[in-house]
Every structure is written in C-alpha cells, then in structure tokens.
Amino acid sequence: MKRTGPLIVLVLVLVVIGAVAGHLLGRGGGAGAGGVKQLTAIVGSEKLPYFADPDVKAALARHGWAVRADAAGSRQMPTRTAGYDFAFPSSKAAAEEVRRHSAPKGDNVAVFSSPLAVATFQPIVDLLNSAHLAERDSARVWRLDLKALVDANRRNLKWTDIPGNTTRPVAQNVLVATTRPADSNSAAMFAALVSQVTGGDLGAVAKLFTDQGAVDTTSEEPFESYLGRGTNFAPMVLIYEAQFVDHAVNQGLSNGQTVLYPNPTLMCEHTIVPLSDAGATVAKLLASDPDLQRLAAKHGFRTADSTLTAPVFAKVRPGDAALPDSIAGAVPEPDYDAQHDLLARLEEKMA
C-alpha cells in the first residue's frame, strides 16, 4: 500500500509527458525518424492525393518536414483550425475567411491553382450539345453554358424533355451535382459564377442547389461517387480540374469519362494560411520548391510555371480534344466581402 502514492505520481508524470509530446508533434515542435519535424494540416479534400503521394512525402522529408493532412470542406475550416500548423483551403476568399477566424503566423501563400470544371461522360456531352447547353469553343474544348443551364432549370427541364434522348431517359432535372456552398469552396465559387451570369438572381442560384436534395460537404466525395457509380450517381459533377487530371494521369480514364468547363469558369487559387511558424515555413516551401511544384502539376494543379503543367496535361485527352493550355475567359475570384455577403444571403434563401 505504501507504494501506491509513488506509482500514481509516476503515471501522472508519464501522462503529462505524453500529452506535451503529442502537442509538440501536432504543432511542428517534434521530430520523427531522422530528425524530420511533424506538422499537421487541414486541407481541401481534393489535395489529399497530393499529400499522400510518397514522392511528395520524400520531397518534404529532404527539407526536414513531414505533413499529416486532414480533410475538411474549405468553408468548414474557420472553426476547425485548433491544433493545426496550417490550413489549406481552395481559394483566396476561403483563406481570408480562415485568417479572420484564427491567429495566423505570417502572410497567406498561394501555392497553385485549378479552375472549376464538370466531370461527365461523352454521351452526356453529346446530349447537352443537342439541347444547346454545351458547345465547343475555338480550341475545341467543351464548354457548359451556365446561363443556358440556369434558364433550363428555371423551366424545370428534365432529361426526358430533351428530344431524341436515349442516353439518359430519366425524369430528373438537368443539374450539376455539387457540394453545399456553406461547407465547400467549389460550390461557393459555383454560386458566385451563377450569380454573375444571372445578374444576381438569388432565387435562380438557390434553385440550382435546392433541386439537388441532400449533397456532400467536400469536393472529393461526389467525385469519388462519379468514378465509382457513374451516371447512377449523377451525369454531371462539379469538381476542380485538378481532380480529373490527377485521375486521368495516375489511374486512367474509362467508360467515356470526360470533362466540361463552365462558361464562364473561375480559377481558384489554393492558398495556405500559416498557423504556426513551422507552418509558415512549409507554406513557402510548397509554393517555391521545384520538386514540390512539379509534383503538384503531376496531381493536376496549375502551377505558376506553366512548363511544369504542360507535359502532364499533354497526357490527358478526354474525348477528342486536348485540355486547354490556359483557361480563357476565367473570371476573377470574388473577394472575401462579396463572397461572404453572397453566401449569407444564399443560406437564408435556401433555408
């Protein structure tokens, strides 16, 4: 019985040591094997394949770093940053939202970019073309006419209403499957695009989302459903172009998988908010290291150096047209205040 007190003290000491060590490891303060410092990051789900890539891990390790990435919708991040070294949402506006709700350690860092795109299938593209909802641009890249899509949705155009449709004889509205704007950057940016082409018609914007019913919260979820279930999930899925390119290069296309670009589309700058000194260091490294930028291109992201992107995109030829070298007609990202106001009003409209 006399030994019980010292044992309790010893256990408590070990618990405290373990807790302190865990905290340091989670905030860039601990070293793993070979002196590699461990960081944790909260990132948009579309970037998980990048951080999981063994080559990315090796490139980071050469500089003495290891990153554990946890996924979240970009617009969920502002309330989830505790314990992370950096947040990596999918646009400047989303990064500013995170910044205003946290204690950043340095300036935001734009690392790479990717335009909004629509994952679909060639027979669906042909059907959309027959319904005057999609057409080729001068570079023979397929574009989805957002204004025409909104007009079709206003009159509740269903797939079965398209003349001669034997491709998708389903009595469902012609829609792009998205995530929820309040949770996910891709849907928030899509809402901004639709708002622009409708002249700010909030009712039309809301209808494109509410007509879908229940939706996912991160951009990777509907894309995985597109890959696994095809048109049984949805004929059109809003994605980042990088997701499609990553899949095409690293797994290969099948079953007529192809991509459309909304017209207009929007280029999203994937931007890091550093939340620790170590996070600030790694943010700059991800944006500047040639190997890490080359690997970003391998996963479909557009880098500041287009010569890194070009050989990757040259391998991807959905349908019978190459991917665009540049995104013509892309509109600028909305600034934080404009986006915040739009989403607040849209949430009220969708409630």
What portion of residues belong to β-strands? 15-25%
Helix content: 40-55%
Distance between the termini: 63 Å
Q: What is the overall shape?
A: globular
Radius of gyration over alpha carbons?
A: 22 Å
The SS-based structural class is alpha/beta
CATH class of the largest domain: Alpha Beta
The CATH topology of the largest domain is given as D-Maltodextrin-Binding Protein, domain 2
User: Number of domains in the coordinates?
Assistant: 2
* Element order: H for helix, E for strand: HEHHEEHEHEEHHHHEHEEHHHH
DSSP, total strands: 9
Overall description:
The chain is an alpha/beta fold and 351 residues long. It has two domains: 4-112 and 269-313, D-Maltodextrin-Binding Protein, domain 2; 115-267 and 323-350, D-Maltodextrin-Binding Protein, domain 2 (3-Layer(aba) Sandwich), CATH 3.40.190.10. 43% of the residues lie in helices and 16% in strands. Strands 1, 2, 3, 4, 5, 6, 7, 8 and 9 form a nine-stranded mixed sheet that branches. A hairpin with a 5-residue loop joins β5 (134-136) and β6. It is globular and about 65 Å long.
